[in-house]
Amino acid sequence: MLLNRNRQSRIMKPKSLGLLIGIIFLFLHTYALGQSNSWETYIQTGDSAVAQKRYADAERAYREALKLSEKFKDKDARIALNLIKLAESLNFQSKNDEAEAFVDRSITALEKTIKSAKAKDLAEEYYKTETSAMVLDKAADIFVANRKYSEAESIYKRIVVMREAAAQIKETPKSNEDFLKFLGQAITNPQAKVADANDKLANLYLIQHRFEEAEPLYTKSIKIREAHYGANKPPVAVSLNSLATLYAMQDKYDRAEPLYVRAIDIFEQSNWLDKPEVATTFENYALLLRKTGREAEASALLDKARAIRAKLQQNTR
Length: 317
Hints:
By secondary structure, this protein is mainly alpha-helical. It has two domains: 1-9 and 211-317, Alpha Horseshoe (Serine Threonine Protein Phosphatase 5, Tetratricopeptide repeat); 17-187, Tetratricopeptide repeat domain (Serine Threonine Protein Phosphatase 5, Tetratricopeptide repeat, Alpha Horseshoe). Helices cover 75% and strands 0% of the residues.
């Protein structure tokens, strides 16, 4: 997170997230037999528009999908997913009140899905959890963007509990069908998702300067990532940047600087210097250096950060 107090830190997402989402859609389609695939087409069109920042086009696609979702069963998870995607597209257009209304509808629909008949096996329960977490995470992000911090906090806490419970499951697939359904879980480790959930809650606390509550969450996230990825891997460096920023915001520069240095060293050793998370770390550390009167070092880091962002911008054209 930048020392600029109005910005949120970036959290690494698994490289395989796109594949995981695709698997979730396959799951949803499989468990909603007899429905048209037109809904999925509209959803995919909306997702593509969001990726290109064409939010009005995304809104139109999601609204068309929502019309089709009226034919689904009342407890179909696709309804909640459709509603939250529509809410997100509206919020991107600063239609905040309407977006929050759809968030409420999405959560209500999700509750019906969660309270529906018990999952028939562990794989189905896993995918139910993934869909729920996706919807809730987007809902909380919208509340954060609109500075509804209390609403966001309760949702992020719920996601933490959900992720921690999922990480405790030790059962293994008993058949080839179970194995295929568990593919998504194999791609994205549940412990890493616990770390992501802790980071989201910690970021919210940091925005509100609730430092004592944020610090143990960041520390826990670092330990989880060190255990899962290894102590000198980029995901750990991303978490180190967050904890360093927490200390820097409290003027605890002696505690923040070693963490920034370690994070940058990990990025350099991993040949991972063309990512937005690296630019953010450079910018954060540069602000600390400026505050401690080391202008030349700060300027050098800011130059590196600008070069990374310029390259990233070119790649997105």
